[in-house]
Amino acid sequence: MQRRKFISKSIQAATLVSVAGVPFHGFADTIKLNKDRFFKISLAEWSFHNTLRAGKMDNLDFAAKARSFECEGLEYVNQFFMDKAKDKTYLKEMNNRADSEGVKNVLIMIDREGQLADVDSKKRLLAIENHHKWIDAAHFLGCHAIRVNLGGGIEKGEAAKAAIDSLHKLADYSKDSNINILVENHGGFSSDGVWLSNVMKNVERENCGTLPDFGNFCIEKNKNRECVTEYDKYKGFAEILPFAKGVSAKSIDFDEMGNETTIDYFKMMKMVKDSGYKGFIGIEFGTSTASEEEGVKLTRDLLIRAGSQV
């Protein structure tokens, strides 16, 4: 309850912050002041994972939820329609919902389909095959990409070789569908900026890139899921940004001025702008205990405010 009150106060305080020296008092003014911003805003479905898992929201409600925050794109998570990848009737309804809300299907984040950096070739080939149906689903939905994870490695060199082979195979499969295969820094070796950038330098496929996340640079966690080894997020972000075909704006907590307490959004957004990236940046509110609605609002407003000042 205290956390919810704190974030609520943060939202009120954030509306008093100025953009380029001009005070604003709500999101409508923010949109008006940033109509020519260099990026579009999408919403990662993971931002509402608690609501979805509790059955208070359905995957088919996601398009309307994103539009309620004035987001322009949808980043789905396969976990929330895990058995529907080949269900064309269901996928058609997802398209109908997106169209009716005037939002674009951007990508699908793929989890729980096997480890793509596993040196065991049988396990890895099965994981690759498991991803095929999601590439097909992404194509049907009009997305430009799927996000994959490069987990399962034990030794860096061997994991890199396995990861490169997996990405080659997935990119070859998805080429005719115009689907990009995007790797996110998402724990383990993939959160090591040098390791992931070296993998990408050796992937000889135009339809393969990265989905740099502002956070997610924890390389190792203990039994309590606490991070014990973390890569420098700004260094890591800079290392994988040159391969970006998408960007994920992670947020965890906010202060009373509406700034993220664990990530310097202004520093991150300057790197994004300087790189020449002009695509979607996805809101991904990751706290499991605070109000998801309020967290998404704060992330959205901070993203626009930072983007207008860099």
Walk me through this protein's architecture.
By secondary structure, the protein is an alpha/beta fold. 43% of the residues lie in helices and 17% in strands. The strands form 3 sheets. It has an 8-stranded parallel sheet with strand order 8-7-6-5-4-3-12-11, covered by helices on one side. Helix 6 links the parallel strand 5 and strand 6 (145-148). Helix 1 packs parallel to helix 11 (292-309), helix 7 (156-174) crosses helix 8 and helix 10 crosses helix 11. The longest helix is centred in the middle third of the chain and has 21 residues, at 121-141. The protein has helices at residues 2-14, 27-33, 49-53, 62-68, 88-101, 121-141, 156-174, 193-201, 233-240, 265-275, 292-309, and strands at 18-19, 22-23, 40-44, 73-77, 104-109, 145-148, 180-184, 208-211, 218-221, 227-230, 247-251, 280-285. Residues 1-33 have low confidence and may be disordered. It starts with a helix and ends with a helix.
